[in-house]
Amino acid sequence: MTRLSISGLRKSFGVVDVLKSVDIEVEDNGFLVLLGPSGCGKSTLLNVIAGLERATAGSIRIDDRDITDVEAKDRDIAMVFQSYALYPSMSVARNITFSMEVRGVPRAERRKAAETVAASLQIEHLLDRRPAQLSGGQRQRVAIGRALVRSPKIFLFDEPLSNLDTQLRLETRALIKRLHQRVGATSVYVTHDQSEAMTLATRIAVMAKGEVAQFGTPAEIYARPASVFVARFVGSPP
Ligand code: ADP
Ligand code: MG
Q: What region holds the ABC transporter domain (predicted)?
């Protein structure tokens, strides 16, 4: 079953074509990694999927629903950013459940949801702290909790580990992998790090200059790179 389907997607800023006809499908419970060098259009593609940027042409579907012109808040998508994007004045619990607060969910129910999600991320002891009192790894767990609590149809991650040091990066990567295996959440994950891509992905789209240079499983891309660019980028043996 295809959960997310993108076809003929283009995005221009003025005369600059940042995305040139992107076609991508992500199966239900799939973990697609968009892998490519800085500036190739990965964040732009995520932002268009999230509805933070409008597509210039093409279409985006979730299940049988065309969401190309749907507002970001009505897309049933949650995004995790490199910079965490937490509300500094709110507690961890309130950061995690703010989307429920907006929907008018009662306080006791929100607290319970915050506790459940925090336990799955091993941050239950931090619920009453503010973001400034947390390490980078803990902040990113809060941001992941905020996405999880919404049970969206699709999770988007934009280089969520890039601000973490090596040890935390490996720990948080393993956490994301465990969560994906447990929750089975359909995800699109952006990185320029090939080992991250190989570890997490069910499918990889290698991107170059606004296009998908190759789409396949990690093993296929590693063993049979479609071009010299892909081979160099994923570190395939010559
Ligand atoms: P990546 O995430 O792969 O590093 P981006 O999607 O951020 O790449 O950017 C791709 C290209 O689009 C870059 O050349 C960038 O300068 C350009 N770009 C991104 N956002 C805008 C914008 N709002 N206006 C003009 N150009 C942009
Ligand atoms: Mg980017």
A: 4-234
For ligand 2, the distance from its centroid to the CA atom of residue 190, given in whole angstroms, is 8
Ligand 2: centre distance to CA 44 (Å)? 7
Three-point CA angle 93, 94, 100, nearest 5°: 110
Ligand 1 site, residue 191, Cβ cutoff 6 A: no
Token pair for 127: 């619920």
Q: Tell me the per-residue pLDDT of 203-227, one tens digit each, with 9 for 90 and over.
A: 999 999 999 999 999 999 999 999 9
Structure ipTM over 0.90, yes or no:
yes
**Burial level of 114, CB count in 10 A (0-12/13-18/19+)?**
buried
Non-local (6+) Cβ contacts of 97 within 8 A are 105, 110, 111, 113, 114, 149
pTM: 0.95
Cβ–Cβ under 8 Å, residues 154 and 188: yes
